[in-house]
């Protein structure tokens, strides 16, 4: 399958995303069995990414972040990009526990940041799984409100990974349920006003270009 993709698009195919989302609560959609990142069959397939110099977008929930460490260490030459800041959950048993979840999530982010082959996408908070009510509101959040919500998550990721291993993502069209495209990107701009020009260039462009090996 990977060879077919490479043959069809040798200059644009850079990696894959394979969902490994699972949570015991049943409050969110599970797209994989538990412990998939450690599964032998999964890892035999994962090894082909190294052979073809392809990256892996990791889509998982915040309680699963520690599971990613062993995979990253087993394949130190494979670039791994964590999607949606590691998806801190805010529904089901996680509802009403924003601070508690944040602390667990922050420890997970610090742990995976120790693996130099992992980068993280900043965004994706507008999904219903995050536990915000934006999708139910007649008036969607302004960029100022969204920036205030995003700030501690963005700062935590940049503090642990550095700007050169963080990249912004829109997560559209999924995010459209809660926010407009313009609002999201304006919120990103507001959230990074205190960073240097070089750091902002990395967050908005340079990191993405490097990890996905974009040739322009």
Keywords for this entry:
5-stranded parallel β-sheet; alpha/beta; 216 residues; TIM Barrel
Report mean pLDDT, rounded to a whole number: 97
What is the spatial order of strands in the main beta sheet? 1-2-3-4-5
CATH architecture assignment name: Alpha-Beta Barrel
What is the domain tally? 1
Q: Major sheet: size, sense and barrel closure?
A: 5 strands, parallel
CATH homologous superfamily (4th level) name: Metal-dependent hydrolases
Question: Helical amount among residues, as a percent range?
Answer: 40-55%
Low-confidence stretches: none
Distance between the termini: 27 Å
* Rg calc: 17 Å
CATH class division: Alpha Beta
> Remind me, CATH topology?
TIM Barrel
Order of SSEs, N→C?
HEHEHEHEHEHH
Number of strands: 5
Overall morphology: globular
Short précis:
This protein is an alpha/beta fold and 216 residues long. Helices cover 42% and strands 10% of the residues. It has 7 helices and 5 strands; from the N terminus they run H-E-H-E-H-E-H-E-H-E-H-H.
Topology:
Layout: H1 2-8, E1 15-19, H2 40-51, E2 55-59, H3 65-74, E3 80-82, H4 98-113, E4 118-122, H5 143-161, E5 166-168, H6 181-191, H7 197-211
Parallel strand pairs: 1-2, 2-3, 3-4, 4-5
Q: What does this molecule look like?
A:
The structure is a single chain. This protein has 216 residues and is of the alpha/beta class. It has helices at residues 2-8, 40-51, 65-74, 98-113, 143-161, 181-191, 197-211; strands at residues 15-19, 55-59, 80-82, 118-122, 166-168. It has a single domain (14-211), classed as Alpha-Beta Barrel (TIM Barrel). Helix 4 (98-113) packs parallel to helix 5 (143-161) and helix 5 (143-161) packs across helix 6 (181-191). The protein has a five-stranded parallel sheet. The protein is globular. The chain contains seven helices and five strands. Strand 2 (55-59), helix 3 (65-74) and strand 3 form a beta-alpha-beta unit.
């Amino acid at each position: 399958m990977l060879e077919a993709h490479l043959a069809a698009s040798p200059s644009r195919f850079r990696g894959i995303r394979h969902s490994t989302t699972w949570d015991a609560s049943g409050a969110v959609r599970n797209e994989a069995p538990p412990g998939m990142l450690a599964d032998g069959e999964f890892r035999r397939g994962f090894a082909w990414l190294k052979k073809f110099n392809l990256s892996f977008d990791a889509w998982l929930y915040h309680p699963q972040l520690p599971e990613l460490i062993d995979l990253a260490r087993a394949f130190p030459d494979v670039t791994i990009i964590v999607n949606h800041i590691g998806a801190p959950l805010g529904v089901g048993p996680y509802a009403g526990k924003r601070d508690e979840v944040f602390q667990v999530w922050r420890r997970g982010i610090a742990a995976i940041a120790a693996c130099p082959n992992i980068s993280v996408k900043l965004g994706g908070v507008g999904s219903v799984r995050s536990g915000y009510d934006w999708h139910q509101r007649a008036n969607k959040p302004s960029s100022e409100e969204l920036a205030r919500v995003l700030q501690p998550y963005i700062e935590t990721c940049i503090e642990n990974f550095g700007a050169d291993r963080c990249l912004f993502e829109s997560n559209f069209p999924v995010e459209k349920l809660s926010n407009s495209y313009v609002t999201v990107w304006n919120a990103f701009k507001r959230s990074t006003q205190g960073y240097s020009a070089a750091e902002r260039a990395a967050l908005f462009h340079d990191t993405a270009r490097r990890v996905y090996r974009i040739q322009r």
